[in-house]
TrEMBL record:
<protein>
    <recommendedName>
        <fullName>Inner membrane protein YgaP-like transmembrane domain-containing protein</fullName>
    </recommendedName>
</protein>
<dbReference type="Pfam" id="PF11127">
    <property type="entry name" value="YgaP-like_TM"/>
</dbReference>
<dbReference type="InterPro" id="IPR021309">
    <property type="entry name" value="YgaP-like_TM"/>
</dbReference>
<feature type="domain" description="Inner membrane protein YgaP-like transmembrane">
    <location>
        <begin position="1"/>
        <end position="60"/>
    </location>
</feature>
Length: 76
């Protein structure tokens, strides 16, 4: 599994994921599970929806501090 989520994308996913999950709890809706999935993709730094479109937002990140240095477990 290759990391394909960069730092900015990761932070945005965490914020949006938490927000959607909280709204799901407040309104007692299953919609909150989408927020959990978005948050999990941020944690593992891999989005399967990016694969068909060949999107990789981690290309612009500094590889010495992010992906490949043991942070996400991928081999870059």
């Amino acid at each position: 599994m290759k990391c394909n989520i960069g730092r900015a994308d990761r932070m945005l996913r965490m914020i949006i994921g938490i927000f959607i999950a909280i709204l799901g709890v407040i309104y007692n809706s299953w919609f909150g599970l989408i927020g959990v999935v978005v948050f999990i993709t941020a944690l593992i730094r891999f989005c399967p929806a990016y694969l068909p479109f060949n999107i990789d937002t981690s290309k612009n990140d500094d590889n010495t501090k992010g992906c490949g240095s043991g942070g996400c477990g991928c081999s870059r």
